[in-house]
Amino acid sequence: MGDEVPLVEMRGIRKSFGAVQALRGVDLTLGHNEVLGLVGDNAAGKSTLMKILSGAYTADEGEIYIEGKRVYITKPEDSRRLGIEMVYQDFALASNLDVAANIFLGREIVRFKIGPLRVMNQRRMAQEAERLMKRLHIDIESVRQKTETLSGGQRQAVAIGRATAFNAKVIIMDEPTAALSVGAIGQVLELIERLKREGTSVIIISHRLEDIYKVGDRVIVLRHGRKVADIPVEGDIHEFRERVVAYMVGARDDFAEPMAAPVAP
User: Fold this and answer.
1) Average pLDDT over residues 75-103
2) Which end of the chain is more exposed for a tag (fewer CB within 10 A), N or C?
3) Model confidence over 206-238: pLDDT tens digits?
4) Secondary structure class of 158 (helix, strand, coil)
């Protein structure tokens, strides 16, 4: 990133749930046009950190900056207003609605209002959804197709497409390739690369290190609520995997506090 102001900067983020310290002063930066992997074992704090950035949780301590300006995120609407969208592992799609309705769910285009009654502009939403699907090369038969009829890979693509539909600067993806077929995984990774080329930055929470290796620029490793590594994606896949796993299991820690010198008797 050089001297460029980061797109996102989180400083000293702390979060506890009762006696459990989920995050212990975590720092994170995300550059413009960057794909960042966020990894760690279960309960490392990955999802908690991203839920704070997306407004689902509020940090107990710490600061968040967007393009150098301090911001206050206390609810999902705050993060969306800042151009931050999160795609959850379960896709958060309404199965009984069609693709176009899911794209505009909660942000419907209204043709006119009569008191509390709102009449949706179905045609315009379908046209915009179709344009979005074509731009992102998402292969579905029709935007009028019910999402329950789509494959897992198609549903993931629609969920990602919905996140990009409203000029998102940052898209957070929680395990975007979990439970997908090999072919669907490839399509989702191609979509991530396409988003980066179009100027969107992406944070990927994933246990699949091979996916991060294929599309990531950098990876942050969390362990027990602390950042233990912030390294570029480089070397061959075997070297990369061994290095990341060493951080995950505690064999390496780039941010460990130095041990105090022994006191002379």
Assistant:
1) 90
2) C
3) 999 999 999 999 999 999 999 999 999 999 999
4) helix
Phi–psi pair at 107, nearest 5 degrees: -135, 35
Is residue 79 situated within a structural domain?
yes
**Domain membership flag for residue 184:** no
Q: Residue 89 pLDDT more than 80? A: no
Q: Give the percent of the chain with pLDDT over 70.
A: 95
CA separation for the pair 119, 109 (Å, rounded): 9
Q: Select from 249, 195, 228 the least CA-distant residue to 38.
A: 228
Number of domains in the chain: 2
Number of Cβ within a 10 Å radius of residue 142: 13
Residue ranges making up the domain that contains 114: 84-166
Q: Which pLDDT belongs to residue 13?
A: 98
* CATH number of the domain residue 92 falls in: 3.40.50.300
Token pair, residue 224, equals 């027990």
Could you tell me the pLDDT band of residue 119, with boundaries at 50, 70 and 90? confident
Do 28 and 220 meet the contact criterion of CB atoms below 8 Å apart?
A: yes
Backbone φ and ψ of 27, nearest 5°:
-105, 140
Shared domain check, 111 and 75: no
Long-range CB contact pairs, 235-244, < 8 A, 24+: 237/210, 237/213, 240/209, 240/213, 241/209, 241/210, 241/213, 244/39, 244/209, 244/219
H/E stretch holding 70: strand 69-71
Give the CA distances from residue 100 to residues 125, 131, 159, in Å, rounded to whole numbers and listed in that order.
Answer: 6, 11, 11
